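Case study 2.
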Amino acid sequence: MPDASSSARPLRVVVADSYLVSGQALAVALEARGLRVVGVAGNGRRAVALALEGQPDVVVLDAGMPVMNGLDAAREILRFAPATGVVLLAGFAEDSLVRDALRIGVRGFLVKEQGFDDLLHAIRDVSEGAIYIGRFYSAAVLEVFRRKSGEARDVLTARELDVLRLIGDGKSMKQAGGALGMSPRTAETHRASIMGKLGIGDTAGLVRYAIRRGLIVA
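Prediction:
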């Protein structure tokens, strides 16, 4: 996975862990991979305050925090800042937590025993509007994930999906337009519409999205 430093602007992240030392260590590791950590909290209430003050792209929340647990903290954050990406870290794969959290807009779920690279993938995915659910969760929850992750694809028209596939294959707008029987300007209009609908700001992000959604093969 490319470092976050390859982006035009580093992703802003708040980290909240029931063990503050663990949260601080995680923050150092994320900073080393090019993300900008704008706050570290040891409880849910502090995490909410830091999220609202720092306006991060993503908040990483320990599900079992004191004062206010991760799910309640996520609910408060998303109530005031619904565009914020939230990743929940759980001690074990609790399916009911995922179901409840999906309803309020949480988009990332990992078990703490998963690796650091998994967390980086989750942060990147939720920052782009996608959903990330770790491999330890049950087939039933993964099916909910598949339905949810398909919703973003459903907002694209058939023609936009065609353009997105060609972008994923590395085609320029001139080449995409030629392949689809449209002008480069029309292809560019479709590209702009796709970016707006998916909340993705560059071609690299579109390619990653197309790969994750199975529109192209990496």
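The longest strand covers residues 36-41.
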